[in-house]
Amino acid sequence: MAKKVLIVYAHQSSGSFNAAAKNAAVEVLTAQGCIVDVSDLYAMGFKATATAEDIKGEVKNAENFCYLEESKLAWEQGKLSADIMEEQSKLTVADLIIFQFPMYWFSVPAILKGWIDRVLTNGFAFSQEKRYSQGIFKDKKAMLSFTTGSLESMFSPTGINGDMNVTLWPLQNGILHYCGFQVLAPQIFWAPSSAVAEDRKSMLESWRTRLQGLLEEKPLSFISLDCFDDKAFQLKPEVHEKHASKEFGLTVGIHLNKPLPPHSQMKAGC
Amino acid sequence: MAKKVLIVYAHQSSGSFNAAAKNAAVEVLTAQGCIVDVSDLYAMGFKATATAEDIKGEVKNAENFCYLEESKLAWEQGKLSADIMEEQSKLTVADLIIFQFPMYWFSVPAILKGWIDRVLTNGFAFSQEKRYSQGIFKDKKAMLSFTTGSLESMFSPTGINGDMNVTLWPLQNGILHYCGFQVLAPQIFWAPSSAVAEDRKSMLESWRTRLQGLLEEKPLSFISLDCFDDKAFQLKPEVHEKHASKEFGLTVGIHLNKPLPPHSQMKAGC
């Protein structure tokens, strides 16, 4: 059966490098027989802010409105606003989600954070029991594809912005892996706006080449949920002990006070 | 002269724990003689998305709109939209900025990311020369004050969400320190929604106590800009060598492939 791909795209301009990267993904994946859908957030005027208007009708507790709880309830009762439900439908059928964006302030632009805050509803995208390796979307893949303003050297463990693996951890672990997604290595376009036209072209060519095998790629490594106890959610003593003599921590975040495993948020198999 | 404090506050409800934390800050700091201003983002209906409407009149390049460049130009020409200019005025006079928010997806809510994306304009808040320890706001202090859904144990180097120091790095280094702010230790309210009323009360009491000495606190440690060369922005060989025999990396991001310095994004003097 044809694979379904959703591209969540956040750039204001159709003339941008991000637009070209998005168009390349649509073309190459469609040519492979995939069915590709694009959520063009700026063009859609996508609402970024999580408010009571996201819920149709009365909220449960207007005095002390808690978005996490109210949106969960609204999802259960089919009362989420139409724009959220539409995005959730696209996500439900997708096998792979590609987030295409320019990095703003070491993270995603606010309009894309808004998609994350509003669409990945409590209950729909995660629950206390269903998260990380047991997450709701564990049969789906997801990846970040983004441009930076900084050069690659600046995002190294000796560079001024620090290791990109650290910057990616909250996004790739805290959002994508949290919902269970198998996280494919990020596609990072280093400072295309500082590059000459020829280099920009070759960045896109290399993305096109990667896209051809993207759906068969091995995902990044994270830690299985059953390595943690279910009260304090600490690494089980036996897992900790087993890893005691190893040189590196398990992941960027679960580093056990050891050096971070190199490239673990950038390359599969690290 | 009276110190000026700006609280950038992002919660939907005046009955929330975040509202109580914000109110405590207003009260205690005002009682100390500070002049406190609050940007209540949801109440203001603050626009979160970075679009061409943020610029009055014609943009320079509509075909290939680049927010970073266009907003810089608009700032230089006094053509930024009124809501952005208003926030920039508040920031300009402030000695301390407190960001008060519930953590959403290992980061700030989209509405607050929108404030960051739109208000910290290229030119106004940073430039290629003026950033990090030479940053434009180096005479100001800033801090994060936030609630989590997760317990503290879950955000440790052996916990399921990984070390909170890692999660804070992109926010505290990539946004606050990038603009030059002296970054005060974060105020983290661990899972108040899971706590009993008495514990929530004591969390607020401890915040009130901290607020009394807040303006005299020593900031977190980062690395001086002159430790990096000015081409690839890599740590200078002499700094690297000087640190070679040390047990820990310099910071969370500039970790030199050593273990991360413990608590360095959580406590001053680490």
UniProtKB/TrEMBL annotation, chains A, B:
Molecular function via GO: dihydronicotinamide riboside quinone reductase activity; metal ion binding; NAD(P)H dehydrogenase (quinone) activity
EC number(s) from the headed UniProt entry: 1.10.5.1
Catalytic activity as recorded in UniProt: 1-(beta-D-ribofuranosyl)-1,4-dihydronicotinamide + a quinone + H(+) = beta-nicotinamide D-riboside + a quinol
Compartment annotation: Cytoplasm
Cofactor annotation: Zn(2+); FAD
Residue ranges of domain Flavodoxin-like fold in the record: 3-211
Key words of the record: Cytoplasm, FAD, Flavoprotein, Metal-binding, Oxidoreductase, Phosphoprotein, Zinc
UniProt keyword Lipid metabolism present: no
Cellular component terms per the entry's GO annotation: cytosol
Root EC class: oxidoreductase
Described function: The enzyme apparently serves as a quinone reductase in connection with conjugation reactions of hydroquinones involved in detoxification pathways as well as in biosynthetic processes such as the vitamin K-dependent gamma-carboxylation of glutamate residues in prothrombin synthesis.
Subunit structure: Homodimer.
Protein family (similarity comment): Belongs to the NAD(P)H dehydrogenase (quinone) family.
Protein name per Swiss-Prot or TrEMBL: Ribosyldihydronicotinamide dehydrogenase [quinone]
Organism: Fundulus heteroclitus
Taxonomic classification: Eukaryota, Metazoa, Chordata, Craniata, Vertebrata
